[in-house]
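Subject: two folds for Thursday's group meeting

Dear M.,

Sorry for the delay on this. The cluster queue was jammed most of the week, so I only got both jobs back this morning. I'm pasting them in the order they finished. Each block is the input sequence followed by the predicted structure tokens. Could you check whether the formatting survives your parser before we put anything on slides? The first protein is the one we discussed after the seminar.
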Amino acid sequence: MKYDLPRPHLSNSSYTLWRSSKEQFRKRYYENQEGFQTKETNFGKKIAKMLENGEFVNDKIIIYPNPEYRIYEELEPGLMLLGYLDSFDPETCSILEYKTGRLSNKGKVPWDNLKVRKQKQLVFYSLLSQLKHNKVNPKTTLQWIETELKDDTREFDGHILTAGKSKLSLTGKVETFEREIAQWEIDNLKEDILLAAKEITEDYKIWKNQQKNN
């Protein structure tokens, strides 16, 4: 099949967005609208950059030899997959993903064993490892770096003043989750990515024809 995608590849985020909201996918990738940014996502990117540059100091953080490891491989002719792995060891094919997040207003954690088990990003990266290195390490790791909202305070004339807005900061808590990836999960994801790529190709063709006729 000849694929025709709005980008020359599929990433985990684009594949996931197609599966979760086709309307948002079209806005993001067909119309090139900016993706939705939050205080949390921007802070997460800041921490990821610090980890990549070796600026993050916390004895609980695991860092493999290659922070921000890029894999760009062909799934089948004409269909490329792209992934930026937070930390990766090519010798053992060990995959590590970092996530920042804070407790909900009801005190619920953003990550636990069940949520990690349901998450497909580690499966996507395992597929990339298989494509590039012809090897998969079934044991993957996700580290949750806890954040919290604190009032932005400043001292003035001997008094502590609240600036009227809160900012994200790290609590110092880091929790590590291990997840084992089975080959059947990788195979199932591969088939669904191929199906999604076909769906996007057909949908993108319809969208482009509509643009011509408008």
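Second protein, same layout:
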Amino acid sequence: MMASLDQHLIALAAAVGPDGGDGVLRVLRDVLCAQAPFEAAEVALLHPAGFQRFTLTDDVEPIAAEDLLLDVSGRPEVRRFDEPADLDVFPRTRERLVRRGLKSLLVLPLSQAGGGKGAVVLARAHTFGFVGASLRVLVPVAAMAGLALDWARALARSTRTPEPASGVPHAPDAHDAAESEATILLLRAELERQHALIATLTAERDAALRENETLRKDSSRMFGSRRRRR
């Protein structure tokens, strides 16, 4: 049975630990494999010195170039490129895809709600590879992944205990503790926001189903009335 969206979000949150994000990336890879199969995938986090890449496959070669990633980080929105020609405005990224034999691309922005800027990039070896992908699932998953990675990196920083010259272990200071607590609060707020999004989408789906059922019944009654008049 396929996991629900809230289960995916909870799994990402539960994977957070002082490992710098390794657990979050493993969960993210598993979710993406189930929801949007890919031949290549990466997470790119924006830093002052450039993008830090985390590959989700055995191939460590980057997929997207800075021309696309900077644009996505500046204007966070989902981008879908169904064939290499769609990437003419991002020639460096298109060149990379062609060189690797990849033909379609899906770019999901990371969380802007306190998390780091960047994107999850998925690629397939055939055109129109992500037409059937559910953005209602993938967008919240990418948003949560961004926040969870930010939290994991904060925890990794706060748990580092370099020993001073005296040999006495250094305990995390008040700043480290405050940073971790603030990140936890942000993650909880994002979870609540995603649960609210799930509730809204569910309500919209139920309303659409009710409307379709009403239209079906009205159409059936109208058709039956016409048959009786004949």
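Two things I noticed about the second structure. The beta strands are 40-47, 50-55, 79-81, 104-109, 118-124. The mean pLDDT is 81.

Cheers,
T.
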